[in-house]
Structures
1.
Amino acid sequence: MEITIELIFALVQAVVTAVLGAILKNKVVPSYLVPIQNIVVGLISAVIAIYFNLFANIPLAIFICLAISLGVGGGYDALKIKNNK
């Protein structure tokens, strides 16, 4: 497997989404608004990816960035639920 700029970008986006979710959840942003926060992070990441031509087309960039940010948020919530039981 080759390490590419797209892979590095996805990793950085996932880390930023997880850190923002962990820090801002229940302190600054109510927990029911965290998915919207993740969508905003995904859209900002998509704009950055489109600006630097990291993906072949715009819908693909938006889809991938939203999938990463929402996936990280869902994974974080799933781990938190599992740890609470």
Note: The chain has a mean pLDDT of 84.
2.
Amino acid sequence: MLSNRPSVGIDVAKNFCFYAAVSPTCTTFLKSFKALNNVSRGRGC
């Protein structure tokens, strides 16, 4: 089944996450980037 929507991937680690997205034609839709998980201890999500 073909889709016209981009595909997004998220790699979750303890202190950071990597995000990436590709178009239906397998070209880069969004340059991959790293985001820090900086929730304070004891406060939860």
Note: Residues 17 and 35 are 5 Å apart (CA to CA).
3.
Amino acid sequence: MDDMISFDFTLDNILSVKAPRDTDPDTLHEAVRDKLITLIQGKHECFMFEGTFEEDSND
């Protein structure tokens, strides 16, 4: 029997990128991803524990 469960976390940070006022937000994903990478590399991310999940073993 496997004694492993899943621990669920969410990332609790707001990422802000500069762009012209009329920019489509869907075009900013790469800039936001780069900002997130920088945040994580600097160890400034904030993970919030949400709970645990156990798979049903009655299958």
Note: The chain has one domain: 6-18+25-53.
4.
Amino acid sequence: MKQTGKRTCKLIHGILLMVGILGCMILTGCAATPERVLQKTALTAVSDQTKNYKCESEITMNAQVGNKNLDTGVSMVAELIEKPEYSGHIEMTMNYGPKGKEKNDYYIVKENDWTMMYSRKDNKWIKQLVTMDDLSGELEDIGIYNYSSFLGYQKALTSLSMTEENLDGVDCYKIKGLVDLSQISDQANGILADMGVENTGLDFSTLSTVKMCYWIQKDTYYPIKITMDMKDLMQDIMEMSIKGTRAQGQIKINEAGMEMTFHDFGSVTEIVLPEECKDALLQ
């Protein structure tokens, strides 16, 4: 009887030990790390809620050229519906520095079986028929970076660190990292083009890395704010482009980067074309 009692005690002790070990494994496995949070964030790209949203972005660059200070950039405000069919309204402002600013307005809507893009320039509306392939190119050309495109940067992030922060009343994971642009050269060239740098076959592995930061909402894992610090990269590119010229050593990049925010997920149900552009000429 005593032997049976001892075996029973040992069995219970063993079970408790196994439960304790398993519990530690589960708790450790569920602990939030930058890698796990980013993995969960990547899964939100297939959510119906993230297929329509509102967003803002701003690309800025400030440079000291001799004794002159130049500011250039692109800002955007958009309402986008990615599924079931792409539609959206985008307002953009281009800052050309001394040459002034230019404002553009775009609507993307479905008309019968066709996708139409309306654009306003110099207070005149025009429209053009676009396929999905054409649309992707058009959106890249005018500097539209959607939800999914920014999730693509995650695969190139290194040197990750994470803290927690309340951003405008929203509890977030704040993840910092360095972007290896050689892994996402096409996306990098698109952003650089919006900053006035033409694609010259840059070898990104020889250039400075970009500092990137995600603010990811804790309860949904949606990235609600993303920033990129490209100051060092732009300085490298500038020095390469003016090497051996009289301008060498005369240009200093004070600031260069991008900020994008996403919000109102699931709230954009329809893009309404205003009356003023319904008589737009077909190009």
Note: The helical segments are 2-30, 34-43, 132-141, 147-151, 185-194, 231-242.
